[in-house]
Design brief:
The structure is a single chain. By secondary structure, this protein is mainly beta. Helices cover 0% and strands 50% of the residues. The chain has no helices and twelve strands. Strands 2, 4, 5, 6, 10, 11 and 12 form a seven-stranded mixed β-sheet that branches.
Length: 125
């Protein structure tokens, strides 16, 4: 299994970035996916999730209305569209494969089995 994130970089407050996550080694369309980011001294912060079919999505309160999580099952690719970026969004962002089809709205070790190396997002003026 490979999970490869890309698209991070430096953005100004109020700007936008689109992260991509290309996967291989499993049937992408059969599994829900999420984006998570580390929280200092805490468990990873779940950011957004989507079900296997791409119908149901969830976002953390901290990003609701600013981030969306589309997926393209034909391209084995998950995205995170990040708009109205804030300095507090600065983090390494990881794409994580859930163990089932239903959207996951939290981070727990038991609900994900693969994730990538991450892509760094820095929001600064």
């Amino acid at each position: 299994v490979q999970v490869v994130e890309s698209g991070g970089g430096l953005a100004r407050p109020g700007g936008s970035l689109r992260l991509s996550c290309v996967v291989s080694g499993f049937t992408f369309r059969d599994f829900a996916m999420s984006w998570v980011r580390p929280a200092p001294g805490k468990v990873p912060e779940w950011v957004s999730g989507i079900d296997a079919d791409g119908i149901h999505t969830r976002e953390a309160a901290s990003v609701e209305g600013r981030f969306t999580i589309p997926r393209d099952n034909a391209k084995n690719t998950l995205y995170l569209q990040m708009n109205s970026l804030e300095p507090e969004d600065t983090a390494m962002y990881y794409c994580a494969k859930a163990v089932g089809r239903a959207v996951v709205s939290r981070w727990t070790n038991s609900e994900y089995d693969y994730w990538g190396q991450g892509t760094q997002v820095t929001v600064s003026s």
